[in-house]
Amino acid sequence: MFEAIVWGVVQGITEFLPISSDGHLVLVPAFLGIDGPDLTVTAVLHLGTLLAVILYFRRELWSLTRVRTDPDARRLLILLAVATLPAFLALLVRDQVEELQTSVTATAWFLILTGVVLVVADRIKPGERRVRDAKVADAALVGLAQVTAILPGLSRSGVTIATALARGFDRVEAARFSFLLGVPAVTGAGLLELRNLADSTGVEAATWVGVAVAAITGYAAIAFLLKMLGRSGLWVYAVYCLGVGVLALTIL
Measured between alpha carbons, how far is 70 from 88 in angstroms, rounded to an integer? Predict the structure, then answer.
């Protein structure tokens, strides 16, 4: 039970802060010298952070129920669909990536790459575009960036926020855009692995505890990031990723 709580906290905090949840679920056990959650449980923990993002953006997502009468709801639905399509590319390399997801060295290098991406993104002058200004091309590019986060240590929120910034979005709005467009991909991955887990060994009670903890800490992480982005930018997270990546390469 204690381990489930720990992994839930790690998943919840690192899913939305641009520091890679999958990377931490590889490196934290390596640093502590313990076994981490297996790949299926890791995917199921994403259901907790999915719940967090659904609750936080409930108004925007609830507007989709008015898709027939609300032009803004139709536009958001189209953007979600466009951003999700590239996710199917990940299925083509799933087996190869699963091998990388057990490699501490590969994860450390990809975390360093996340740090580099964040350094570059932090130097981009924020624009004034908001989620309501988003176009299909923005969703497509963010969706393509999202696919790269299948690599352990490469932060989904980091690369997608960086992409939105490059498209002229405000920092906070770039994060909102990133989180909203990530809902379908995280839903699909979590439900797929949940089905696989149920078909094999079943879902243990401890796993559900981890999901609940991930939901609570994930909600808090979203609120924290959206509040702090306008003040401190991305450099703090860049330094963290570079530091942890280098430390992992040095001592692990």
Answer: 29
Q: What is the largest CA-CA distance in the chain?
A: 58
Look at residue 20 and give its three-state secondary structure. coil
Q: Tell me which residue has tokens 């306008």.
A: 230
Residue count (the chain): 252
Helix (H) and strand (E) counts in the chain = 12, 0
Tokens of 192: 């797929």
Q: Which residue has the tokens 């609750």?
A: 55
d(CA 47, CA 16): 13
Question: pLDDT digits over 129-165, tens only?
Answer: 999 899 999 999 999 999 998 899 999 999 999 999 9
Between the CA of residue 113 and those of 117, 210, 240, 243, what are the distances in Å?
Answer: 6, 28, 12, 11
